[in-house]
Amino acid sequence: MQRIRPLLLLMLPALVHASNVSFQKDVAYLGPDRAEKMDVYTPKGESDGPRPAVLWIHGGGWVGGNKLSKREKVICKALAEEGYVAFSIDYRLGSYKSKTLPGGGVDVPWPQNIYDCKSALRYIRKESARFGVDPDRIAVAGGSAGGHLALLVGVSGDVDALNHGGLYLEQSNQVACIVDFYGIVEVTGGRQKLFAGDTDAETAENLRLANILTHVDRETPPVFIAHGTRDGTVKLSQSKKLADALTQANVPHTFIEVEGAPHSFDLQPEQMDLRPALFEFLAKHLK
Prior knowledge:
This protein is of the alpha/beta class. It has helices at residues 12-18, 70-81, 112-126, 128-131, 145-155, 160-163, 200-210, 236-248, 275-285; strands at 2-4, 21-27, 38-43, 51-57, 85-89, 95-96, 106-107, 133-143, 177-181, 223-228, 253-258.
């Protein structure tokens, strides 16, 4: 394990096309009836063969965020500039409803959110020739709640309970590696409402399945973790638990504690440039 301490894009399509990255917006990966779409960032120029790919999943506490947020654009563009085809997706979100509204309670996105993310992975694999992607070299990545979903996609490739929903079920659920930026590892506190079932037993099972540590074993793909030491939204201890579990399972991983960084950053927080470490990890496990 490696443990390290210590552009603003307002007009993305124009800037992307002016660079060495092409941009395709709103691919209907969930079919015509779903509003959630996929954006594709592709390196321009010739390639010796199919390129490796990274599926990026945005954060937002499972209730907010979108694929065109500044962080998502910056990260996906950087990945494409490094030679990866980057896919940024929207997926099913939930919401906390006021108890004063008719029908109060919570709009629970689970398990449709994980089904959507798995559908995105399988869609990329199904359409790999169209996108110029090597179906055997796909990574999954995300930040915060998107980090949780990325981790869950990556660690549950053979978990039947999480693989029977969504589309393109004939495709593999496996990934080559996982990139986690300050992701939620264990769902606790008020966040548990977004995983509620019809009964207490069903809720408990949902939370067990959503817990990343439930699934970590020696078959888990390599994992890259980055987490700020001053994160007030997702505790650093969550990533430490994950790193410890990966160590115990002998899973290759890189754990970077970004000294002084708060929650939610891209590849270049002011405290340090994460690109060299991330690109080294991807080059080792994906290229």
